[in-house]
Amino acid sequence: MSESQFSIFSELHEDESGLGFCLRPVTMNGGRLPALHRLLGIGASERLKSVHAPRLAQWFGVDKARLAHRLPTTLPRSMGARRACYGHLFRQPGVLRTNQPQVCPQCIFEKGYLLDAWDLTLSTCCLEHGVCLTGLCPPCRAVIKWDRKGVQWGGCRHHLGCTDNSALATPELLYAQRILQASLRLAQCVCLAEDAGVPTWLTGLSLDGWMQVFYAFGLLPSSWSPLCPRELSRCLAPVDAQEVVRRGLGRLQAFTARAKHEGVWASLVARAPLVSLMTCPTGCQDEAVGRQLFQRVFGQKEMDLLVRGYPELGQLDLFEGAAT
After folding, report:
1. Which of 106, 86, 259, 278 is CA-nearest to residue 184?
2. What CA–CA distances, in Å, run from 306 to 94, 216, 231, 310, 313?
3. pLDDT digits (tens, 9 = 90+) for 25-35
4. What are the angstrom distances between the C-alpha of 105 and each of 11, 120, 159, 239?
C-alpha cells in the first residue's frame, strides 16, 4: 500500500469512532491496518493517535482537526490524566477501547460504521436498538479485532451484522448509557440522573468522572472483595464491562434511596476510583463530587485520614451542605 492508493474517500460521520473511521477507507481501498501502520512508520502494535491525523486526513480526504479530535492523545504523566480523546480527559488508558473493539450488530448492518461511544470501555449497549454491545462475532463467537478486512466483517470472515442472538440491555445498562453518551457530547444530564434514580449533584461529573463512579460502585462482586489494581487499568471485555455497570448503577440507585449511608456501603464500594476522582480530577467538579461520595460511603474519620495523605483535599467542599 502507498499514499497514491487511497483513491476511494469516505465521509467522516459526526458520531463516528476515529479508529473505526481509519479502518473504513483503508479496507475500502483494498488494504489492512498493518499496511497503514507501515506507511506511517509505526509498529504493528502501536495504536493510531491524534499525532498521525495530519497524514491520515490528507490520505483519506477529511479535515485533519476533526480526525485528530477523534483519535487518542497520550499525555505526560505530570498531567495526571493519561489520555485525551473526543475533547475529554481520561485517567487510565484502559477506559478507551484501543485494543478491544465492540459493536452493535444491528448498527453495523444498518449504518456500516462504528460509533464514537463504543470506544468507551464502560459503554455497554446501543440506545437505538436496546441491545448489548459485543466484542464477539455473532455467528461464531470469535473475538472481534481492529485489524480486519472491513468494518462489517470479522477476522473469521463472518459478517458482523448478524442480529439473531443480540442480548437485550437491562434497564440499568440503558440508564447508564444515556448518561455516558450525554456526557460524551457535553449535554446536560440532570433529567437523565433523575430518571435513573441517582443524585442530581453527580451531574457535575466529567465523562471520566462518571466512569470512575461506576467503577467504584460496580467493580467489587461482593462485600469486602479484594480489588486488584489491574482492574482499573485494563480494558474490560464487553461482558465484564456490562456486569460492572449493571452492578454499579444498581448499587448507586440503592445508595441514593437510603437516608443513612455511613458504614452501610464501605464493604461494597471500591475506594481507589473515588480517591482517583479527588486527586486526579478531569473536570471542575470531580473533586467535590468525589469528596461527597467518599465521605458518605466511608465516613468522616476515613476522609480525615485521606486528607492527611493528600493535604490538597483539605479545602472546603464546594457541595458542603448542599448535596442531597
Report:
1. 86
2. 25, 16, 22, 6, 8
3. 999 999 999 99
4. 21, 17, 9, 15
Indicate the residue type of 106: Q
Q: For residues 240 and 43, what is the distance between their CA atoms, to the nearest angstrom?
A: 29
Q: How far apart are CA 134 and CA 163, in angstroms?
A: 11
Rounded-to-integer distance, Cα 103 and Cα 124, Å: 10
Torsion angle defined by CA atoms of residues 228, 217, 241 and 109, in that order, rounded to the nearest 10 degrees: -160
pTM given for the model: 0.92
Average pLDDT, the chain: 90
Phi-psi region of 6 (alpha: psi -120 to 50; beta: other; left: phi over 0): beta
pLDDT digits 0-9 by tens, 179-201: 999 999 999 999 999 999 999 99
Helix (H) or strand (E) holding 276: helix 271-279
CB atoms within 10 A of CB 3: 9
**Cell numbers 495530519 label which residue?**
54
| Residues in a beta bridge with 83 | 74, 90
Please tell me the distance from the alpha carbon of residue 121 to that of residue 100, in angstroms, as a whole number. 9
Cα 323 to chain centroid, rounded? 26
Tell me whether residue 188 is exposed, middle or buried, using C-beta atoms within 10 angstroms of its C-beta: 0 to 12, 13 to 18, 19 or more: exposed
Residue with cell 474519620: 301
User: Which secondary-structure segment (H or E) carries 147?
Assistant: none
Q: For residues 59 and 7, give the distance between their C-alpha atoms in angstroms, rounded to a whole number.
A: 9
Report yes or no: 19 and 146 within 8 Å, Cβ to Cβ.
yes
d(C-alpha 212, C-alpha 165), whole Å: 31
DSSP assigned state of 88? E
Q: CA-based diameter of the chain, in Å?
A: 66
Q: Which residues of 286-313 are buried (b: 16+ CB within 10 A; e: fewer)?
A: bbbbbbbbbbbbbeeeebeebeeeeeeb
Q: Position 60: which residue type?
A: F
Cell numbers that stand for 80 in this block:
495526571
Query: Do 223 and 268 form a contact (C-beta atoms < 8 A)?
Result: yes
